[in-house]
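Problem statement: downstream parser choked on a complex file, so we are re-checking the raw output for the 3-methyl-2-oxobutanoic acid run. The parser issue turned out to be on our end (a line-ending mismatch), but while we're here, posting the original submission so the record is complete.
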Amino acid sequence: MTNIKQDRVLIFDTTLRDGEQSPGATMTHEEKLEIAQMLDEMGVDIIEAGFPIASIGDFEAVSEIAKLSRNATICGLARANEKDIDRCWEAVRHAKSPRIHTFIGTSPLHRAIPNLTMDEMADRIHETVTHARNLCDNVQWSPMDATRTEHDYLCRTVEIAIKAGASTINIPDTVGYTAPRESADLIRMLIERVPGADEVIFATHCHNDLGMATANSLAAVEAGARQIECTINGLGERAGNTALEEVVMALKVRHDIMPWTTEVDTTKIMAISRRVATISGFPVQYNKAIVGKNAFAHESGIHQDGMLKNAETFEIMRPTDIGLSATNLVMGKHSGRAALRSKLKELGFELSDNQLMDVFVRFKALADRKKEVYDDDLLALMRDQSSEDGHDHLQVKFLRVICGTEAPQSADLILSVDGKDHQVTATGDGPVDATFNAVQKVFPHQATLALYQVHAVTDGTDAQATVSVRLEEDGRIAVGQAADTDTVVASAKAYVQALNKLIVRRQKTAPNADVKSVTMRDAG
Ligand code: KIV
Ligand code: ZN
């Protein structure tokens, strides 16, 4: 094997490609740049920044990330054709260290889609990897659905890709079908049988359909793979991809039995996990390994007693290892701007003076209503960002709901649309439905509600509720998130925030459209 030391495992993050591909997880251009910067700073080796041919947006995001990255190799995905590969190269070529990742489905089911014979596919692999290699000296090739591909054919295709110049061979378990022993055997078989295998790096790319992605990835490393493909929080289609935080922390904590290292600064894990959860609108499950809210919570009396005597009694890693502060320092209405800035920095937010001013005003308003403001409250506050063009077309000015045991419930709403206030009353099946109907009355739209989720941020009856709303309109998806001690107010704000994002996206796709005429045609 060339390039890397035997004890080093490369971390290839595909949050912005395979993760973002998962339905509903769409990120804006700015959000992608922000995540890429965090990945670059935390020591990820390769960032798969997107699929440049997929859309202009994808292309622009990959190009920009390539220009801005300081440390990581920037990779783009391309199908097995010249057009895809050329477009991918156009985007990644700006990077200090660019990579083209090209793939084709090699299993019987996937071969049937382009209707290629085994020989025709073999020729296609030779041609496309050669083409990519003529553009870029760092080429990764993947036989999609490798774990369901006949071994002889898999060996044949991998050999062709290596001979054509691929320096990384990625072995995807596209449908999350394999199991640890099989995952290891497959890598071992390829390394033993394929001529030239010792000249390349084998990568493992697992999906989590059977909950085995982390185990399968680590088993592949045991067998000789030296690149793990993964995403933050395990974001990805269906049950997701291998979670970066899990493989990185497993290698760190159990270095005694898995003696491979990564360059990831694990203290940055929590901050990026929170950002990805916020941006994607996919919350992290409470008992998720490493980054779940309860991953370091010790509730039972026996555990707490043991923890107080010696943290190692029940803790195999320290919260600070992943960037969780050792103390959940409570903020309150007497906390000043400097304390807020430093707390937010710890939580992964570097704010400009203007941004801090805005957050500080909202923090004070919250602290007035809620005695103790915890980390989670601040994170919820940070989720309450304004719309993508920095100007909210719609703003909730006033909301009062009347609810009780008798239906229907009603909502009085003042919604400002581009600075002009509109007052309406609407009824509905419950206070949230009534509120959304009121918004619809002021601002008629076709967007459908794809997700509505409420979480209590902290404990207690004065806890804030954080609400996520996902709207869909003509294939565009927008996520709004807001927090408030009043669940219905949080719902209204989240709904309106998602609408604001849709308006911005509409304008981006039809830049000459007048927002008012597009959006206000029937406004009351
Ligand atoms: O899961 C998969 O097979 C992929 C490939 C494109 C590498 O994501
Ligand atoms: Zn995948």
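For whoever reads this later: The mean pLDDT is 89.
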